[in-house]
Amino acid sequence: MIDQIIKDAKLRPDLFLWRGDLPLPEIEKWEREQSVSVPDDIRQLWNTKGGGDLFESETILQPLGSDEDDLVLPRSGWYWGKGLDPDCYVFHEGLYISIFRRRDNLLRCLDGLSFSEVGAFRTLDEWYLLFRSEYGERYGLPPLRVGA
Question: For the chain, which residues make up each domain, given as ranges?
């Protein structure tokens, strides 16, 4: 599910700079070439919005594009060189780095220096709430209802 991030982007489009949707067949081709299965939520976000920048300093990486600083493989490779498990693919940089692994569908936030786990999430909405709790009030996003 990517409901909350899409709702917030509609409420405050100035906080979300999307790079543009990526065709699903191209994402699937990239997955086959990398022998990786991207979690459905991330695939859906890439397909509808692409990667992008949000809030102050958060960047959602994408598999395809022209700017290597915004691409999953070059950024993941940089972190692999720093000791990140090569089974982990970085899909977000900012307050933390966020990864998905080949072997499971959990999204994880890691400290960008020590790679210690900050949190694990089943959906992109759960993952996004970590950042919304940090930035939402600061940027005037409405409080979330309990269970929302």
Answer: 3-135
Write down the pTM of the prediction. Answer: 0.92
Please enumerate in sequence order all residues whose Cβ is within 8 A of that of 17, keeping only pairs 6 or more positions apart, or say none.
52, 53, 54
Q: Which amino acid is at 134?
A: E
3-135 under CATH 3.40.1580.10, yes or no: yes
* Per-residue pLDDT at 147: 56
Q: Amino acid letter at 23?
A: P
List, for residues 64-111, the tens digit of each pLDDT value: 998 888 999 999 999 999 999 999 999 999 999 999 998 787 899 999
Q: How far, rounded to the nearest angstrom, does the alpha carbon of residue 50 sit from its chain's CA centroid?
A: 10
Residues 6+ apart with CB under 8 A from 39: 100, 105, 107, 124
Q: Cα separations (Å) of 1 from 27, 73, 75, 79? A: 18, 24, 25, 27
